[in-house]
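Help needed: design a sequence for this.
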């Protein structure tokens, strides 16, 4: 049995914290964000034209990620102090992703590199929110605050519905 070297106590794995219903729509969005990362990786590995991948990435960002970020910032981040480190990190990651989205269009010669950066930064961001920020929020916020988030998301959140005719990520052969 492994022990914690500092205390010599057996290490126990903490049970994962069940996602509060208020955060489920955002976690579902994260699934589609991770799917975007997979599509970018797959497209690049299949040597698909970066233009095709970039077109889809911009579409997905504008229709799904941008509204998702706006909802998180309006309904979650503002419940934490402005100096809260987790809030600052999440906001920093959102800014970085927005800059990469702009770079994707403004620097077409570097699209493949920028797509790789978007894929890496977005995946790390989603992992941060799912594994760190959301569990933290569930511990810090009151049930009343979580219910208010749930109410706000019920009236403003939109499910991800894809409308894209170029499935570049599908291997054809």
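Sure. Designed sequence:
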């Amino acid at each position: 049995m492994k022990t914690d070297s500092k205390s010599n106590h057996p290490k126990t794995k903490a049970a994962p914290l069940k996602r509060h219903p208020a955060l489920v729509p955002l976690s579902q969005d994260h699934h589609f964000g991770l799917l975007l990362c997979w599509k970018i990786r797959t497209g690049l590995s299949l040597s698909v034209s970066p233009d095709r991948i970039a077109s889809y990435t911009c579409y997905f960002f504008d229709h799904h990620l941008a509204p998702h970020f706006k909802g998180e910032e309006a309904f979650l981040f503002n419940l934490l102090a402005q100096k809260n480190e987790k809030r600052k990190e999440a906001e920093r990651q959102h800014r970085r992703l927005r800059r990469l989205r702009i770079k994707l269009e403004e620097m077409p010669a570097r699209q493949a590199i920028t797509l790789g950066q978007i894929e890496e930064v977005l995946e790390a961001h989603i992992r941060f929110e799912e594994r760190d920020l959301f569990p933290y929020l569930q511990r810090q916020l009151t049930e009343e605050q979580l219910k208010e988030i749930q109410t706000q998301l019920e009236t403003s959140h939109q499910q991800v519905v894809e409308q894209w005719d170029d499935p570049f990520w599908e291997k054809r052969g």
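The CA atoms of residues 103 and 151 lie 35 Å apart.
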